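WARN retry 2 of 3 for item q-0093 after timeout on previous attempt; input resubmitted unchanged.
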Amino acid sequence: MDLKYNVLIIGAGNIGAFFDTPANDKILTHAHAFTKHKGFNLIGFLDKDTQKAQKAAELWRCKAFRSLDSAFEYCTIDIACIAVPDDYHYIILNTLSKFPLQIAFTEKPLAQTNKEAKELIQIFKQNNIEIVVNYSRRFVPEFEKIKNDITKGIYGEYITGTGYYGKGIIHNGSHLIDVLRYFIGEIDSVKPVDSISDYNMDDKSIAAVLTFENNKPFFIQCVDCRNYTIFEIDLFFERKRVRIHDLGFKIEVYEIQKSKVYENYNNIIKVNKIDTSLQLALYYAAENIYNHLAFGQSFKSNIGEAYKTLKTCIKIIESIK
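OK item q-0093 returned
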């Protein structure tokens, strides 16, 4: 890869720099993903806490910047990674849109309101800058295969399902909503059941009955993140069942088999257990970004899909109000 693109990371926190180190076999940070991939140069970090930026720069052997102006004056920046708390996504992206940039790769959510998201979409389109949103499971091959098999009709029609999450419907629940949209389609209606403030008063975790456009339900349940972290999805189709657990690191696939005990009964039996490569999701995202710039590959988690996921989460929030 003779052609290399320059990367700036905004936010020297865990997901930006400190969930792993250059020696780790797992790739859990933006820094590791863009230093591991041979198509990029990690130029440096920017953080309002300059000491954190310096510490991250020392770990990943790059520079620490005090401002966007100083970073863009230092060299051409092709990709900016936004790895800051949710509250700052809109303001950082809005500011970035004024700089010469090819791609903004942002942690989810795109913004915190539909209005903010629509504004960003318009501004970035006007300035010819593209946005990729880190709904990480869209980049993982094992999830992509299930999506393709569902689309081909191998699973049959969706029947019902349930899922568990915590830490806010937008902050963490949006990952679950995005996987549902990715696998099954758009959510048509929402009936709220309960809510808890386990993360942020402005972003409650909400339990609800979601109904897809085919009139089939999904039961989304919230579990207090102060007890433990959970991300699970269990989906039933006409011919198969798929169970995603351990945050998405494991997937089980079930198929219909005739009962060995009861005549004329069918059981749904586990036939495959998959250890996913979710720990490489950020590397896969970097690969997708490189392939887009170098070869025109479509983004696997684009701004349009992220906007639809945000709109669905806002719809769930409004239903509880």
